[in-house]
Amino acid sequence: MRDFESFGTEHWTWLAMGLLSIITWVIAGRKAGTLPDGDHKQRLIGLIMGLIPAILWIGGSIWLTLYEDPIPKNFVLPFHVCYFLNLVMPFMLWRKSYFIFEITYFVTMAGTLQALFTPDLQHGFPDLINVRYFVVHIGLMMSTFYAIFVYGFRPTWKSLWKAILWTNLYMVFVTPINLFFDTNFMYVRAKPPVASMLDYLGDWPWYLLTGQVMLVVLFTIVLLPFLILKPRVQPAG
Does pTM top 0.70 for this prediction? Predict the structure, then answer.
């Protein structure tokens, strides 16, 4: 197995492909909106786009479970927040659920961007774990930008506090899962093995508390581009 190298050729290639994918799907969705029955076509394109990384994650998990031994449980259980959201995104895009967007926007923009630029990844391409990691995280960005530029969704201050509430509720939800499976989803039990912003927030368990401040700061930063824009939302369904 070839080790993954941050900011090497492979890493930059994934990031460039991700940017190109986002642009391509957004253009396709906006063009679909000009066609007869455009709303349905936009939702169908969004559903297909969201299902690609979701199906890859599910199929990859099944493959790893059957043919890799031993395989760490965190690779095949869908409770890392990005993997969990990856399974939610197809529903959000098909139903045009603004409520789900309100929460996923902040988590995706504040967390997934960090995951793409500082990957918690040791496996190099073409290892299945490497491909699945980048496709899933890029897929989250594609779904988020699709909701913004095709559906016209905009986060608000109210959305920010909803996202903080649900992020903490999810942390409570995964804590017993971590204890039962001896996993570390949401890094509740320990910091990630690679460099991250958690390194500046103290040792366990203090970074779980100081991380709340970081959460507010990061969520506010990703909200700033929309503060000068008039919120324009559409109801679910």
Answer: yes
